[in-house]
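Protocol step 4 of 6: structure prediction from sequence.
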Amino acid sequence: MGFWKNLKYVLSDECNGLLRLLVDHYNRRSEKNEKSIRDILVKVQQTLDTQEVLDNNMSDSYQELRENKDAIEKVSAQCESVFSQCETIVSQISQMETDEVSRGEEISQLVVQEFEKQKEEMKKGNQMLAARIREVYAYLEAVNEPDPDAPNVNDLLARIDVLEQKNAEYESRLSAMSKELDETKQAYDVIDKNFQEEKRKTFHLSKKLVQANDKITDLLDRMKDRSLENMLQKDETENPFIITENKEKYTITAANIQIMVTRFANTAVLDRFFESVPDYDPYKKMYNRYQKDIRTTARQFTPKSELEDVLQAFVHVVQEDLIGKMIEALYRRMKSGKAQMEEKLLTALNQYLEAIGFYCRDELKVGEIFSEKDLDDMECVKDNQAKGKDQGEILEIETYPYYINYIDKNGRRKKLHTKGVMTIAV
């Protein structure tokens, strides 16, 4: 009996101490060991229940306890198990306290280190921010500092106003010009349409004109108008192609080259004639070509140039542009009987050539037999179809040779001439 009382007291003391320890840990509990505390509380409750069972058993009957020895031993084993579990719980609680303290120290150290690190970084950031702020203030001061070379804003605004006014004027003028251009384009389209229609009509008329011209040419060839030939066979004073005034004159010398050049370039008599002649006229085109060539030739020489060189160059231009083209064309036109304009032009040409100093060799006559000396200044065109004509007889003189007299630097009298053209019977 005394043994069981002692056991009861031991269990009671042990449970009370265990409860005090659990209460103390419970007051200092944490999230990590709360589950373990709950488990310990359950075991303590089991121990209390066991103690209560023991109390009940002791109060019922000491005799019943002796008879139930196995039950007592079982209870004893359970008590030992409870004691063992209590010891384990105590050791776990002690270990948990130790771990909690050490972990708290580590956390404190980490917090202190992290705080110091952040403090150092904030210090460096504040220093960099202060330097950046100083730079920004310096930049703002430099930007806000007035530029001595900057133009006056009021002047710029005034110039802008002037430019805007001019721009408005230009836009107005451009609009008017655009409108005028559209109207002109519309008018041009109408004119172009009319022109194309007239062109088509002109093309048909030109075909008819060519056909009529061919018929007229055939008729003229059949008529064999000999009016010009009869005129040329008259007295030489009546021949409009012959100039004789300057035969004995020697007005061109080595000392007056500039005067001679001025005579060639002075085409006033021809200018007056061609004033009323349209630009598309073939005679006017020939004349414009002569003017261009004679002026180009005049610019090639100076007063110090050799007289013969200068004179030969001018005579060559007269041969190519006036005699070989214009006078020959006049002859062909006048031979056909259409000589109203051509007679006036020939008169103007004779005045111009005579003013320069030219004259014609007039010993040649149609119907005479040419001699070998005539070949010096004439080109011969042979006609094999001439019937009833003597061999060597001059059938036609298209152009006469034109001569010009001059005195060279040695005082000798000389002549230059162009080439004439005649047709002879063979």
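Step 5 (inspection) to follow. The beta strands are 358-360, 378-383, 394-399, 402-407, 413-417, 420-425.
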